[in-house]
Specification:
By secondary structure, the chain is an alpha/beta fold. The protein starts with 18 loop residues before the first helix and ends in an 11-residue tail after the last helix. The protein has 2 domains: about 70 residues, P-loop containing nucleotide triphosphate hydrolases (Rossmann fold), CATH 3.40.50.300; about 250 residues, Rossmann fold (3-Layer(aba) Sandwich), CATH 3.40.50. Helix 3 crosses helix 4. It is globular, with a radius of gyration of 21 Å. It holds the Pfam family ABC_tran. It comes from Zophobas morio. GO terms for molecular function: ATP binding; ATP hydrolysis activity.
């Protein structure tokens, strides 16, 4: 662990580990074996920027030691930094193999999706005066006895995207869980559209108070893996008037609605929606969840790592849909460890460390290096940048 600069609590049970911690454990396992041929399949999907840089440096060292590395990734910056030759697959077929010394990332991205990629950015408009979500003096203790959130405050207005930036494990999970009802705070209030929902059930928040949620762990909290994709597209809404009447399901409407999401968000391998959710690739599972939660009626959406494991074309589309959702007036909380994603989408960026707010940065003024420094600072060094 010291050699590869990957931090991990070796005494934590795997079932309690975050997705990022589980990923770090898998990386350490493959490095420990010192195999001659190593396959890294999306290893940086849930790592922090610092951990990503460290892993890429490790790959460079392994290459110098004569190791052969097969690196499966969608991230252009990582390919540019460590890859010698890149083979591009599209729809299961090889498009070509490229010498990265002679190929730029724009050419590679175009080969991946079959067209030019357009960067999607927030235009910083449509933010209303109405406060949709307010968290007041929220305190949460972790099961380890450490502080999850300490006197945490947050406001999100209608038509606003607020992003949480920070190294994983600094309160992001607690923020999402308190809002969605997965945990109750030790103290403090959660107010949604002037309603105190602090003690409301998950179901009530989802149905009555119209909270959508794209969770960090798609298997634990996003899908029922042994149900088909159509059934997963109407979870929580299946008993609504839209999909049922007199105790009977409107199967035609359910199927049509689900297949509309599948088509719009390009969810592949679904067998027209009748495939089990567990049969889909991780990326297609993610697109299904994102499509479901953005499509259903909501006043607030909590989005956690929305583009994890997706290709550049899917990322472009989902970013555009998040910003379209903003235009509709919905409030959005975005939690992402991808600083480029945070900077592209957020109206405001709240930087957290150890459950505290370190600073609030206007999206227009965000600079990657400054955000990185703030993420590593302590609560004693709090700062606020607003213009």
């Amino acid at each position: 662990m010291k050699k590869y600069h990957l931090e991990l609590d070796l005494y934590k049970k795997a079932g309690r580990a975050t997705v990022g911690e589980q990923q770090r454990a898998e990386i350490l396992k493959i490095l420990y074996r010192e195999a001659e041929i190593m396959v890294f399949d999306e290893p940086t999907a849930v790592l922090t920027p610092q951990e990503i840089d460290g892993l890429l440096e490790i790959m460079q060292e392994l290459k110098k030691d004569g190791k052969t590395i097969i690196f499966i990734t969608h991230k252009m910056a990582e390919i540019e930094k460590v890859v010698d030759n890149a083979t591009v697959l599209r729809l299961g077929e090889v498009v070509g193999t490229f010498d990265m010394k002679k190929t730029n990332v724009s050419q590679l991205a175009e080969a991946m999706v079959g067209r030019k990629i357009v960067e999607i950015r927030n235009k910083y408009d449509t933010v209303g005066e109405k406060v949709v979500l307010e968290m007041k003096n929220i305190n949460v203790s972790k099961h380890t006895g450490t502080t999850g959130l300490k006197d945490f405050n947050l406001k999100i207005h209608e038509g606003e995207v607020v992003a949480i930036a920070g190294v994983e494990g600094n309160g992001q999970q607690e923020i999402a869980n308190v809002i969605t009802g997965m945990i109750k705070p030790d103290s403090g209030q959660v107010i949604l559209n002037n309603n105190d929902i602090t003690r409301a059930s998950i179901a009530k928040r989802y149905k009555k108070y119209k909270i959508s949620h794209i969770p960090e762990d798609r298997h634990k909290h996003g899908l029922v893996l042994d149900n088909n994709v159509i059934e997963n597209m109407v979870l929580q809404n299946v008993s609504s008037k839209q999909f049922s009447k007199g105790g009977f399901l409107k199967n035609d409407k359910i199927q049509s609605y689900a297949q509309g999401i599948i088509s719009k968000f390009d969810v592949r391998g679904t067998q027209s929606g009748f495939a089990f959710a567990r049969q889909l690739s991780g990326g297609n599972q993610q697109k299904a969840i994102v499509g479901r939660e953005l499509t259903r009626e909501h006043d607030l959406i909590v989005i956690y790592q929305p583009t994890r494991g997706l290709d550049v074309g899917s990322i472009e589309y989902i970013h555009s849909q998040i910003l379209e959702n903003k235009k509709s007036g919905a409030a959005t909380l975005l939690i992402s460890y991808e600083l480029s994603e945070v900077m592209s989408l957020a109206d405001r960026i709240v930087v957290v460390n150890s459950g505290n707010t370190i600073g609030v940065v206007n999206g227009k003024e965000a600079v990657r290096e400054k955000l990185g420094l703030m993420m590593m600072s302590s609560s004693a060094e709090k700062q606020e940048v607003k213009k």
